[in-house]
Amino acid sequence: MKCWILIAYIPIPVFKEKPELHTALQQRLFHQCLKIVLESLKTTGKEGETFRDSYGDQRICYPRIAAYLADYPEQILINCAAAYNSPVTTAKFHGLGDAKPHARRTKNWIMSRIADACRVANPEDIAMYLEASKTFGLNAVDQPFWEDFEGYEPDLVICPDILHGLFRFWRDHILKWIQNLVGNKELDLRVKALQPITGIRHFKHGISHLSQWTGREDRELQRIILAVIAGVPTINERAMRSLRAFHDFLYLAQYRSHSTTTLRYLDQALATFHSTKSVFISNGARRGKKKTRVIPHFNIPKMAGLHMYSYHIPRMGTSIQFSTEITETCHQTMTKAPYKATNCREFFVQMCEYLIRQDTLSLTADLGWWYFTRSGPPPMQRTPDYSLFIRKMIELTKKEERLEMRNKTRAKNNYMWLTVKADRTGVSLDTISKEYQLRGFSVAFVTFLRQETVEPVPRHTGFNVDVWYRFRIQRTLIQDEEELADPQTIQAVPHVVHKKRHGLHNCVLIKVDEDAEDVGIQGNLLSKSYQQLTASNRLSYSSSPLNFSVEGITIPSSVRNSLGICLLVFRASDQRYASEHVPCAVSPQA
Fold it and tell me: How far is CA 428 from CA 439, 465, 570, in A?
């Protein structure tokens, strides 16, 4: 289903005026264009209009501009704020880094400030009005497009943007501070030392060389960055506490649902970050692009926007639904693809015609699918295109049936499944013990089978088993138990099979107590990490976890009833860290 539709293309002309007036004219043109586009909402918002709901009943509706998804430059443009001012609060440049939020930027406050600026300078004299408006924290717009709209609330309509407000802030500031403290060379070495994980990007060349960044790179680095820099001498306890607090805030802000408790966690994390952020000035991490001097303040526009999450979420809903990542993807389908379909001359009309045709084809396909699922394919195939459409629908139905059959091959808890064919067949227990360097594995395996199965088990360890080096696991979302998270592949490949010297092993945390929380981890730090191997023997014994001692550390017996796996020793992939504990961050998909 299409949730977004293009309603207008806004021009970006080049004015033959002085450079300082060029931006002012573009700002005014933007608001005049939106006035024309949204003109019909003025009367409808005041008087209402009748619409049909999904049940066919008549409803009188009063449309409102509820949310505007935009990055920081467009946010200050919409709410008539000057540069280096907050678009949703009254904070100016010197108050952007304050730990306490400033007053909200309301519609009455903005219009009163515009009136004050108009009394000082004539809006028709753009140069004079621009200078006067800066003293009031405004841009050059004197007639905002929303001034006559009922129910417009600037501090709520401008939504906190996770992509530009959090991810970009993290990349431009938090990550830069970390790089200044750790050093690019050391940070690259630590990032490269992590073993590859299926589904997660592995930065095999480090991160200092990256020039093209997307939200995916931000997410992948946010998962591992705190674990990677743990133990660096230049990052003291106060700096690590500040970084942990910000990352807590970053992940809490992306929750799919919130309660008063999670909002309190959000405020606490932000308060901790503000109370400790001064450490990045004292240790010299807060530097400019040239890194020649320490910047002695935190007057960053996006830092002031962090205060709005706990205010905006209870009134408008979770912030993840207002991220500009959604609209960024629309650039491909609504702008770039239509332009490529034109002859590059007078392309706006052609782009609109292209979009109209695509919408018509999409609606026709939806209608055909609706008919196909209820009545089956019609007896007559009228055109080659229609015949191709019917064949695709049949193939899609068969694919869904194959997926349903695959679901039936999953484990009993419906969370794990293996490939039909094992990676290796007929492997002796002694070979497994040698390849994975597990002392006493053969005896422990036979002892375990004798305890867990009712069938007779030979006392010797000379029988063979089938071995899987990987399996798929899929759990429910932490905040929605009715929806499954993305499946993940868990690997435990020994060094004799994998091209890496130490093999390929993924770190997994296992919840063995039903009273344990789904979020947050408390416990003791072990000097070793443990990985997974799944084995199914040919003697029709059930695959179950083992209970044995690995290099002196005993695996709890409660693991038996968990995931149906056994735990193996993890070794670092980089020789430089071979004798050290390499931290591995586990990021649940909330």
Answer: 14, 6, 21
Kindly state whether residues 56 and 139 are assigned to the same domain: yes
Domain-ending residue, one of 376, 408, 440 = 408
How far is 53 from 66, CA to CA, in rounded Å?
19
Same-domain pairing of 219 and 183? yes
Examine the pLDDT at 564 and tell me if it is beyond 60. no
Count CB atoms within 10 A of the CB of residue 199. Answer: 8
Rg (CA), the chain: 30
Q: Report residue 154 CA to chain centroid gap.
A: 26
Position 575 pLDDT exceeds 50: no
For the stretch 509-549, pLDDT in tens is 766 666 666 555 554 433 333 333 333 333 322 333 333 22
* Percent helix, strand and coil across the chain, each to the nearest 5: 45, 10, 45
Judgement on whether residues 135 and 180 belong to the same structural domain of the protein: no
Q: What is the DSSP string of 160-201?
A: --IIIIIIHHIIIIIHHHHHHHH-HHHHHHHHHHSPPBTTB-
d(CA 551, CA 531): 14
Q: Is residue 491 assigned to a domain?
A: yes
